[in-house]
Write a structure and sequence with these properties.
Blueprint (H helix, E strand, L loop, with lengths): L2 E4 L4 E4 L7 E6 L10 H19 L3 E6 L6 H10 L3 H18 L15 H13 L3 E4 L2 E4 L15 H4 L17 E6 L14 E3 L3 H11 L3 E7 L3 H16 L4 E7 L2 E3 L2 E2 L10 H7 L2 H9 L7 E3 L1 H27 L8 H19 L4 H19 L7 H18 L4 E2 L2 E2 L10 H18 L3 H13 L2 E6 L2 E6 L1
Parallel strand pairs: 3-4, 3-9, 9-10, 11-13
Antiparallel strand pairs: 1-2, 5-6, 6-7, 7-8, 11-12, 14-15, 16-17
Helix pairs in contact: 1-13, 2-3, 4-6, 4-7, 6-7, 9-10, 10-12, 10-13, 11-12, 11-13, 12-13, 14-15
The structure holds one RNA strand of 76 nucleotides.
Length: 477
Amino acid sequence: MIEVYNTLTGSKERFVPAEPGRVRVYVCGPTTYNYIHLGNARTFVIFDTVRRYLEYCGFKVVFIQNFTDVDDKIIKRAAEENTTPHALAQKYTRAYYEDADGLNVLRADVYPRVSEHIAEIIGLIETLVAGGFAYAAGGDVYFSVRRYPDYGKLSGRSPDEMLSGARVEPGENKRDPLDFALWKAAKPGEPKWPSPWGEGRPGWHIECSAMALKYLGADFDFHGGGADLIFPHHENEIAQSEAATGKTFARYWLHNGFITVRQEKMSKSIGNVFLVREVLERYPASAVRLFLLGTHYRSPLDYAPEYLEAAVRGAERLSNCFGLLTEAIAKAASGGEGGDIFTDSLSSLEADFRAAMDDDFNSARALACYFDLVREVNTAVHAVSPPPKKVLEQAMELFSAFNRVLGIFPEKEGKPLIMKAAGGDDFTGRLLELIIAVRQEARIRKDWAVADQIREGLKEIGIVLEDTVEGVRWKKV
RNA sequence: GGCGGCAUAGCCAAGUGGUUAAGGCGACGGUCUGCAAAACCGUUAUGCGGCAGUUCGAAUCUGCCUGCCGCCUCCA
């Protein structure tokens, strides 16, 4: 049984999908005006992990994540970069895919873009106008907050409390300071589309409503995003969508905490951002994911390079275990008896892992189970009489399953894809075998100076040698 | 000002009423090794920001205090 913390109710609730066996998820994607930073990445990795776990549990997941490619920030940035908003959005959309792929984030089923859903947006606004929830004024269209009684139910505040912060910007035609724009009249040089209210473009919040309703329908299961979207973005989405459809918009609202840098929020306006591509140049994706999933998604996560260094070592521990297990399976004779105790601990680890993820996607706890598995496996493969092949393969299945959920390492054919010793059929591999053979001869002669020189030399070019009683093991780092 | 969150070992971080407070990184000692590496074993929080209180029993609940942060305006 999965329990999730729902921002809407402020409590953990049992998760029951609207349709049995099928889960519909919408996550607010990037506004494509810049490369994504680690804070953005946290959201995408978190919801990727949620999706992976739901699939692990046997649900068919429909996962939608939008690109906001029509927006004030894009227009502004395009002007600065001396390009068009469209070209700018294209550039950063491509960059998003590179970064997200680099983080081993699975692809969404659909990535709807605002610029391709203008008709749906206009349709939704027309419904709101017809229903008396919105009004046109001077080429703009505004949502009338006071007409929607439930306004504030997500962020937990009443319209009267919000009045103090609300303002009418110069040039706006709001009747009430709380109202927000659904449609903005075009200004010279800005992207624009024809509409019943004249040429213009959508406001910020309406696109997510229009696209979520188009691809998922009303009453879908999960809507996610960063905690800073609770207000006003998600509050407004609920108001628009529920006013227009008369139905529940999303059933469970999930919000992840921020990444901070020296306890301060990482944000573009503060200027303390670390871009995903910069981080991935220095650290493997496995370490970045380990870092991001090592803290519960709703807690703040402080970033510092040394935390990533620690995660690099943790990821190495995982990959070393994978290598040892692969080796042990290859060496084990088929058949054989025993290993019952090991099998028992495997099933108890799986149960613990599921319990952790069932508890509001507690990836930190799940990770502890992953490391417990590593210790069990390492001990077992080094035992005087290791478990039989069949049992080792069960351990590998569990290792792969944990990896599949957490996405630490990329997968190939259901197994983690971890760089390890090549077979010796490629040139580098054969060369390495030769060097290792020469070193072994030196070792037999007890010529430790030569042996150590070779080992150190290889280490400098990224090849680590490990002498074991059964021969030499090498791996790339 | 309004609303919300956080404070657990050297560092990161689970744990939200009940056996010896997960896990990772680091450090130290040991086993193995020619030496390493990897791996394993052991040690590293009689205590969970402080003070009261509730309870047979609290890191976990209540109150107060202290410190930090976020949202209320673009932001994942």
